[in-house]
Amino acid sequence: MLAQSLRTAMTAASGAKLDAVLSDLGWHDMLDELPDVAIPLVFRLLGETGAHAPVLNDVVLREAGAAPGGTLALPFAGGCWVVWERGEGVGSAIDEALPIHRVPQGDLLPRAAVDAGRRALGWWMVGAGRAMLALARQHALDRVQFGRRISSFQAIRHRLAETLVAIEGAEATLHVAADSDDHDGLASLLAKAAAGQAALTAARHCQQVLGGIGFTAEHALHHHVKRSLTLDGLLGNTRDLTREAGKALVDRGFAPRLAEL
């Protein structure tokens, strides 16, 4: 019931309007009382619906010991810092729909705040990956070439299957990060890196499945691709996080067990 209410809200509104609707639906209360349920649900639905709201601020602020409802500077790829405003009209260089703009370097965030933000962004990118996969799958079922639906072509099936495997794997790492004793943030770091890689894999494979129509501004794919690139850059992108994880493991001299298989 809650998931359907949230999906309906995200389908009807975005940005500051959705921020207000989520507040009315009890987002701040859910974040305080049921964060392990609220964060995956809200952020995954944001990815699936293509909507956006400045709720990443709330997740990071809560773990930093501050009240939700405000904003703070967040690290971005390339050594930049940005603020995700709680209003409209401030575009980013990648996704003009998001009210994100660059700011001078902010204060270093507590480890727990960074980890929670990374997990939230991971769920958002998993949702975006699923949205891209759904678009490509439907196109493969509808598109006919040489008298056959292209969903019957092995190359198409392989791309869709590889996308699904990447998304499911990323979702599994997010569950592990939420359940593990992640004192040094390694599990959350790897979870966001996996989610970013899954979203980029989805963008690449789904673009190939959709062909020319996927390049057009009229098709929804480009929206999810740009959104994923922006989200990947927040709190460390896939490439930087992968290198950071590798350096941490080399410094330790061993790889800790993060999940019981």
Automatic annotation (TrEMBL):
Entry keyword annotation includes Magnesium: no
Keyword terms of this UniProt record = FAD, Flavoprotein, Oxidoreductase
GO CC terms in record? cytoplasm
Molecular-function annotations in GO: acyl-CoA dehydrogenase activity
* Ranges for domain Acyl-CoA dehydrogenase/oxidase C-terminal: 113-234
User: Is Flavoprotein among this UniProt entry's keywords?
Assistant: yes
Give the GO biological process terms: fatty acid beta-oxidation using acyl-CoA dehydrogenase
Q: What is this protein called?
A: Acyl-CoA dehydrogenase
